[in-house]
Structure formats: structure tokens, C-alpha cells
């Protein structure tokens, strides 16, 4: 598993690596200390499993950085690691397409569980935010999608993967089931997002559930 960590404090980076390498034995880490370094690393290697990024780093406004990251790499699972955990900041970050918001104050177990959750394609939010303002948080609902049009614009393989996203399967699980590489699955997921004008794989999962109800019998098995 390849993890990109971006923070301008080495102590934070060391803490994240220490927590994650003990939980994910096969994890390898790429490190960045500012926004420019994040994009440089992504240019060299696009297929990170997850990127954990600080919201406030040198060289770029935090939300501008986040927006560019999510827009430029929609297939990438992005999680914000932040010292701020106010609801307005979290709402804005989630609305940009990130898969989670992890306060730096969380325990090691919570961090590990959050990363595992997001790797499965789910969204992680702090418990106190879910409890206090769940009804006010922006839902990660996809824009309206014409399912018949979606069927026509997607390839057979993309339809097959969309169904599996609807089942909540991770890229790794889909790759194993279809006997393809994880990188190939990420390319297909990215193509699905572009074709259906979706922001992230969570939205694709919602569409996949609806797709399953309407078109599953028409998807050829391989």
C-alpha cells in the first residue's frame, strides 16, 4: 500500500508513519512538506492508495490546494489531517470531494480505523461532528444522473466496475475479483467519474447502487 503524507511539521509526519506502519505492514510512504511537493510527487506517481494532507502548508492557500488536488486527481482518496476541527472547515473540505477529515487530536486507533474506512471507499468524519451537526453536514450526494445515458456512455468494463463500487468494494477487492491490477481499476474509476461528471468514488458508489437495480441483468459476465 502506497501512502502520501503531506505536512510541514516533521513531528506530525513521524507520528502518522509510526501509527500507520504498525497497522498496515506493507505500507510505503512518500512525504511532502508543501503543496508544490505534493503535486510533484503525484506527477511522478499517480496511483497512491490514499493521501493524508494538512490543510495549512506553505506555498498555497489550504482550500485552493485542496480544490486543485481533488479536481486534478478525482480518483485519489484524499483525507485532510488538521489541527482545526470546526464544522465550517469540515463542511467546506467535504464539499470539495475529500473522503475524510481527521483532527490531529484523534487517537492512534481512530486514525488507523479512519484510514481503513476510507480505503474501503467510505467517508470518515469526526464523531463529535457527526453527533452535533449530522443533519447540517453536506451529503456526498451525486448530481442527477440519467441512468440510461450513463449506460450508453460507459464501456462494459466500466459498467461492471460501477456495479462493484455500488457494492462498496475497494479498488483492491475489485482488482482481485476481476483479476486486474489495482492501477487498472483506478484508471477505470477515473474514467467513470469523468464520464458521469462525478466528484469522487463515493458518489460513484451511490450511482452504482441505482445502476445495479436497473441494469445488472444486462451486464455481461466475464
DSSP summary, beta strand count: 5
Low-confidence stretches: 131-139, 217-222
Task: Please report which band the strand proportion falls in: under 5%, 5-15%, 15-25%, 25-35%, 35-45% or over 45%.
Answer: 5-15%
**Shape summary:** globular
From N to C, what is the helix and strand string?
A: EHEHEHEHEHHHHHHH
Give the overall pLDDT as a whole number: 83
The largest beta-sheet arranges its strands as 2-1-3-4-5
Biggest beta sheet attributes: 5 strands, parallel
State the separation between the terminal residues, measured CA to CA: 27 Å
Q: Which value, in Å, is the CA radius of gyration?
A: 17 Å
Given the helix and strand composition, which structural class is it? alpha/beta
Helical residues, percent = 40-55%
Total number of helical segments?
A: 11
Describe the model.
The protein is an alpha/beta fold and 222 residues long. 54% of the residues lie in helices and 11% in strands. Strand 1 (2-6), helix 1 (10-23) and strand 2 form a beta-alpha-beta unit. The model is unreliable at 131-139 and 217-222 (pLDDT under 50).
